[in-house]
Amino acid sequence: MISLQNISKQFGRFKVLTDVSFSCNKGECIALIGPNGSGKTTIIKSILGMVIPDSGTITFRGKSIANDYNYRSDIGYMPQMGRYPENMSIGQVLGMMKDIRKIPENLLDEDLIKSFGINKLLDKRMGTLSGGTRQKVSACLAFMFGSQALIMDEPSAGLDPVSSEILREKILIEKEKSKLVIITSHVLSELDDLITEVIYMQDGRMLFQKSLHALRKDTGEEKLSRAIARVMRQQDESDGLQEARVNTSELRN
Amino acid sequence: MKKLVKYIIADILRSRIMIAYTVVLLVISFSVFSIEDNPAKGILSLLNIILFIVPLVSIIFSTIYIYNSNEFIELLVSQPLQRKSIWLSMFTGLAVSLSLAFFAGAGIVILLYAWSMTGAIMLGCGVLLSIVFAAIAMLASVKIRDKAKGIGTAILLWLYFSMLFDTLVLFLLFQFSDYPIEKGMIALSFLNPIDLSRVLILLRIDVSAMMGYTGAVFQSFFGSEVGMVIALAIMMTWIAVPLSISTIRFNNKDL
User: Fold this and answer.
1) pLDDT at residue number B19
2) Which end of chain A has fewer CB atoms within 10 angstroms, the N or the C?
3) DSSP secondary-structure letter at A71?
4) What percent of chain B has pLDDT above 90?
5) Which is nearest to B132 in space by CA: B110, B158, B167?
6) What molecular function terms (GO) are annotated for this protein (chain B) (predicted)?
7) Average pLDDT of every residue of chain B
8) How many CB atoms lie within 10 A of CB A103?
9) pLDDT the model gives residue B185
């Protein structure tokens, strides 16, 4: 459904993405994992057209997304930190998004609005809300239009345990409807029974794309968090080895 | 796009700064006209206050608003919307609400106390200046990523247009006082929307007689209908140029 081919991006002198390629299909739930500053958010932003890659192409349903904007009507996006105009009420924000998407009222998915209890807060201004409540509004907006692809950047950051459980269940339901879900998260333990694939990023490069099953087999660990920890350790070791090799070769010369 | 503008205007008009701005303008213009019994004199006093406050509030409020809407703009970009229409909606929202605030604060009072061509021109200048400085603010905020730097630049730009430019003009005037520079002065006034507004209104009031030969040249240029049309065109250029540059920049910007 979404595929990236040789995406590179540079901010000033800093290389954020180097030659990233992967593709994801319907029915998959993909975790985008990597240390801070490894380029996860930049990848998401490039898919959404917020960041324009220096080279490479991104296709959505086989069509390039460059200079297109209509493809986004099939993507629900939940940002890492949603901030909204301070004097708009929750109801107005929801209404505005409905106006933008132009989807008939009976096709709207308002489950999350109900289960988060947002419908009792419709008159509250966005400026007075706590970070967690704003995050809930972002989640409602991402799921409201029944989009075929869902992209979430740190969805559980700032949510209380009850709400993040509600969100998790909602993601599972959507996954069953054979939608594509892409999640970045630092809390690996909550991804365990959610995801089917892992994309691991480091320093702007994609190290691997593996199914959860294959990852478990390769590392011999059952838990995703442990498996990733093992991968990271291996990575560090091989980096260390390389450095050692370079050092010895320098000594020889 | 129309719908987006509607929500943005509703948001801005409910902000405290906007309400305070309207009230301050209202208080100032009422008190100026109640102190002066001659409406022409009232206009003159109000002119200086308006030319000072309107650009300041317009440029700084717009800059801060755009920076605060950063995440909101990101969210809009992730929706099926064209970047151009998002940016133009932001601009229209700012321009309309700043103009409305000016009209409610100063416009109505001017119409009540100084119902004349001069009053109408002043009203037009106030509205146009609000829009011009909103456009300049959008250019500044799209070019500069850092919020603190952006607001600093906005203040510097305001300082330049409302003070530094006049100093430069005065300097040039003294340096070239032996030469016939009256026509050049007209061209110079085009380079600053605040000065252009000031000249337009001063010429309507009799004080232009005290401006000597340059005043006479100004009078013969701006006093004519063609001159007025040209002045309006220049103001429009001051809106169109920053706005179109900022739209192009925003189209290719990484958020």
Assistant:
1) 96
2) C
3) G
4) 60
5) B158
6) ABC-type transporter activity
7) 90
8) 16
9) 82
Distance CA B64, CA B60 (A): 6
Hey, what amino acid is at A192? Answer: D
Pull the structure tokens for residue B104. Answer: 């409610």
- pLDDT for residue A249 is more than 80: no
For chain B, say whether A66 makes contact (Cβ under 8 Å).
no
What's the pLDDT tens digit per position in A116-137?
A: 999 899 999 998 999 899 999 9
End-to-end CA distance of chain A: 51
Fold for A2-252, please state it: Rossmann fold (3.40.50)
> Is residue A87 less than 8 Å (CB to CB) from chain B?
yes
Tokens of A231: 């991968």
**Percentage of chain B lying above the pLDDT 70 cut:** 97
Our CA angle for A198, A204, A205, nearest 5°, is 60
Contact yes or no for A86 and B68 at CB 8 A:
yes
User: B10 is written with which tokens?
Assistant: 């509703």
pTM: 0.90
Q: For an interface test with B, give the residue of A63, A65, A69 to mutate (most B CBs within 10 A).
A: A69
CB proximity A48 to B under 8 Å: yes
Task: Note whether B254 and A11 are within 8 A (CB).
Answer: yes
Please tell me the predicted confidence (pLDDT) of residue B142. 94
Searching chain A, which residue's CA lies closest to the CA of residue B6?
Answer: A96
Mean pLDDT of chain A: 87
Q: Do B80 and A71 touch (CB under 8 A)?
A: yes
Strand partners, A132: none
Say which amino acid occupies B87. Answer: W
ipTM of this complex:
0.86
Other CB atoms within 10 Å distance of the CB of residue B120: 15
Chain B positions in Cβ-Cβ contact with residue A77 (cut-off 8 Å): 75, 78
Q: Among residues A40, A65, A63, which one has the least CA distance to residue A52? A: A65
Question: Model confidence at B198, in pLDDT bands (50, 70, 90)?
Answer: confident
pLDDT, average across residues B117-136: 93
Q: Which of A69, A72, A88 sits opposite B11 (nearest CB)?
A: A88
CA distance B18 to chain A (A): 12
Top residue of B5, B72, B81, B82 to mutate, by most chain A CBs within 10 Å, is B72
Q: Identify residues of B whose CB sits under 8 angstroms from chain A CBs.
A: 3-4, 7-8, 10-12, 14-15, 68-72, 74-83, 252, 254-255
